[in-house]
């Protein structure tokens, strides 16, 4: 049997040897990216005045949640020590997985949904059936030819683009789902939040809105639950606790709250102040939960002897200690600035903020912590973060159309109202306010800042002469300042008694364009200082291209393995798979073109060689015919010799006859 110069199964086998290890390595990295990125919630320090651990020990304790490792004593105060296994340390009782701006797109970005399928075919039909009016037949034919051109250069392209966008939406949903699912499994958060812009546009129909909401709950955050309305409470003096923060177990998490998603309304969900109306807010609350509410979690004291140190109006009125409690405030700040389209909804937001302020504990007491979740960041001067201050307004009614940040006045409402800080040392609590932190989204690039006010600044007034010669009083007052958190930490601005401040974290977007980022916030209670402390870390997965490449490569590797296994099974039954594939490709591609590519010329040579062997086998049958021919040729030569023809002339005559025969 002849052999082929090219073997499809051998080529497939060699390809699998190359791509299988690459595919396996990329798949392991993709599905264990928090491990390779050393992602972990910040770990509370061993000593109360030490910084939180965001490095080796935090990562190792997270690994221990998934493995059973022995404990080895180690000196935790020595930063140079690198033990193989650290002792088990308690995780923070409150660990928030913060995700920003998924922005699920939908049919509004698909051309066939708003243009229709082959719209120019329909227009061409109307022109040909005289359903349209034209000045002359020439103009009608001209328009018909234009429609024919648009069919190929617009309709076909839009149809292909629509299929691509649908496939892209499907893949983007599962890309975002992969980030949430993998980090939720690896880091073991106690709570999860999405900081606004859940959807890609507020100007969609109700059907499109609820279809995107279905994708949100059944694809991206599958297994997640909406915070029930009866749990999302309005601030009140007499309130019921939402729950308790667990301090027991290796992950001290709650099976109820690990599934619930705390959703924040964003501008792409309900619009800016000039867009928000009752319909937009009603459907958001129906699908994702209330836009303004609070949750209160109490931390049980592990040391029962500390109970006697708590404030009690009768037994211990001089104490400034309250029961440790974390207050989580979900706030719609989209309509804090003016002018707003709906003053009723804006008044509701103002009333909610006033209720938060009026029901907060006095700033003189310790033990309460306020976590504010919102969407639009606080005011920052140009250059601090990527987004600069920006305000635009509608032309038709002058309402607020777009903003990158809150106004300075609205930001002061957060800092001085909800958190109770002041630039006046003589204010209650020396103006230090309540412990807390602010998390938001909107700025897709993310930003980590520290807002503070300098109480030692001396306010002065002086006369300044203006350009027209008149004198004016210029007042230099204390103002809120803001710096990057790392810079403020480097300059030792954090923790100063004369500079009350708060940390604001704008979580970088989880969209693929911004690296699939996620925020990890740990909040724990320091019993010695009787104050809550917080630390924030990030965990990026990588762009969406990595997700696509890995899954495409996995698909083709699995397909190749299945085909190779099928070829092996067929070989057991005597089927020559290589020859069948080559023959099929030759028929598909074409004989001459394919022979040049696959070496069919060598196969033809093998076939001719086989035919030569067959002729040699038949030589015995043709031997008698050869002898007769030789005898006839000898007789003719003798007759020519008797005529005086030499042997050279005989050879020339025979050669000439062959040449004439060949030409004929």
Automatic annotation (TrEMBL):
Query: Locations of Basic and acidic residues compositional bias?
Result: 597-633
Q: Where is this region: Disordered?
A: 596-648
Q: Name one GO biological process term.
A: GPI anchor biosynthetic process
Q: Which residues cross the membrane?
A: 18-37, 546-573
Gene Ontology CC terms = endoplasmic reticulum; membrane
Q: Which UniProt keywords apply?
A: Membrane, Transmembrane, Transmembrane helix
Record protein name field: Calcineurin-like phosphoesterase domain-containing protein
